[in-house]
Amino acid sequence: MSDPKPFRYDTEVPPGQTRHLRYEISETYLGDPVEIPVTVVNGEHGGPTAFLSAAIHGDELNGVKVLQEVADRYDPAAVHGTIVCVHVANVPGYLAQQRYIPIYDQDLNRSFPGSARSNTAERMANVIYERFVRPCDFALDFHTSTRNRTTMYHVRADTSRPEVDRLARAFGSNLVLSGEADAGSLRTVATNDGIPTITVEMGRAHRFQPELIDRALDGVESVFAEYGLLPDAAVRWPGWTRVVDGNGDKKWLRADTGGLVEMQYGPVPLVYEGDTICTVSDHFKEREKRVAAPFTGLVIGSLQNPVAAPGHPLCHLVGVDDATLREIEREIDAGEFSERPWV
Ligand SMILES: [Zn+2]
Description:
Elements: E1 7-8, E2 12-13, E3 17-27, E4 33-42, E5 45-54, H1 62-73, E6 80-86, H2 91-96, H3 120-133, E7 138-143, E8 149-151, E9 154-157, H4 162-171, E10 175-178, H5 186-192, E11 197-201, H6 210-226, E12 242-245, E13 250-254, E14 259-263, E15 270-271, E16 276-281, E17 288-292, E18 297-303, E19 307-308, E20 313-319, H7 322-333
Parallel strand pairs: 5-6, 5-7, 7-11, 9-10, 10-12
Antiparallel strand pairs: 1-2, 3-4, 4-6, 8-18, 9-11, 13-20, 14-16, 14-19, 15-18, 16-17, 18-20
Helix pairs in contact: 1-6
The structure holds zinc ion.
């Protein structure tokens, strides 16, 4: 076991301490500081350093609640290693309750690792990255679906890399979408820098969804168990895991006609090939277009706003193999299947 070390950003948090701090990453038009809320829990015992972030997209709130709880619940006396929580990364977007940084609608999650001499987003990203991400050993970044959509609880990770696969599995979600993330995203940049990083996607923007938040807290604890930050905690494994690679077996179904959308599946998001997932009808009910499942799978994302134009994404379908299907059917029969992101 390694010795406990201070966590250094430009000052330091010694072992055995929790510090809640605000750290300046930019300035407003008035020249006032833009500060991110950060918690560092430095354990009394040595161990790895975990980075957690939320609200890189300013209106994605479930992760904000997860981090509030994580920052509060772990006593440094029990922690072997260090937990770094950036509660709200995109403060300007959070204040406006919107996804992007309001100045020129820049996407903070396409701006890593950033640069001290570039645009606003890149400067903010650069401070967050250099001070708080780079000193860490692995990272969890919490997101939700974008506005007007919802997504099933899942992890995104490049599971072709063993160290990322370990992190994704330890988090214990049923569904893992595997693949590289976009250039400039925290996940891509940190992973390429040797800091394995996963994205957790959970539910809707603008909401706290307690069931999903509780699951994510279990996931965080499971990760801490896997990496030895909490030697007495247990790694949790879900009843079934589906890892979907690349573009295989997943598809966004889109509207071909404009109109009113009515979802027809549920309450469980499992559909069989040929099942009607939703209909798109005109206001006179003279024309109704049925959208059928092209293969058997899980509806892992869907629109919430019930009007659509041609080309509008309606839902995101992920195929399941026979073994996974049997386990899901068994869980449904036993009343154990808990994926209900639509409520
Ligand atoms: Zn996001």
